[in-house]
Amino acid sequence: MTGPMRPFWLSIVSVMAPLAAGCGGSGAYGHAPNYVPLDPEVSAVAGARQYDAASARVQGPEAWRKAVVLFGVVESRSAGPGGQALLKLSVRRLEPHNACPRAGDDDSCRVTVSDGDVGTVWALVSLRGDDDVGPFAVGQRSLLRIVGTIGQDVSPTDGAPVVHASWYRHFPSAQYLVKKPG
Predict the structure, then answer these.
(1) pLDDT one digit per residue (tens) for the chain, 182 residues
(2) How far apart are CA 39 and CA 171, in angstroms?
(3) Which residues contact 87 (CB under 8 A, 6 or more apart)?
């Protein structure tokens, strides 16, 4: 195709190609009946153990070097060392099935976590791009899945452990649900 139509078709293709690539699967926010890890997430969590708040405080340095994985709802965010974000998290359990308000409509499904927390942890996270600044930045009520190691440092405010994140996945507040008791 030549002439004035070629730039028009190129612009259509350049707009539609990314949209088509984003279709299918559960997308970045897990719109599926069950939790679907992203490809980089699979390798990030391989070998990591589920975070346990009760045992985190009593484990020695050998256990601290092993990676842990957790889901947490952000209670507060402040500046941490080296440009990192220091996040106070309410640790939650991932529900076995995502909530789907409209039956048969995967787009209505949201990653679902427990209503009650199972402990508090602080996390030092190097946030990327829009997760750091902007309308969908990590803030209060965001949900994060974090992989990292428990540091020897503890929060000076409440003595809770500090997890040094090596990887994270962010769900803005409107992109996940909390299972109500009962």
Answers:
(1) 555 544 433 333 333 333 333 334 567 888 999 999 999 999 999 999 999 877 766 666 666 678 999 999 999 999 999 999 999 999 999 999 999 999 989 999 999 999 999 999 999 999 999 999 999 999 999 999 999 999 888 888 888 899 999 999 999 999 999 998 76
(2) 16
(3) 72, 74, 76, 77, 122, 123, 124, 125, 138, 144
Beta carbons of 75 and 90 less than 8 angstroms apart: yes
Domains by residue range for the chain, with CATH: 29-178 (2.40.50.140)
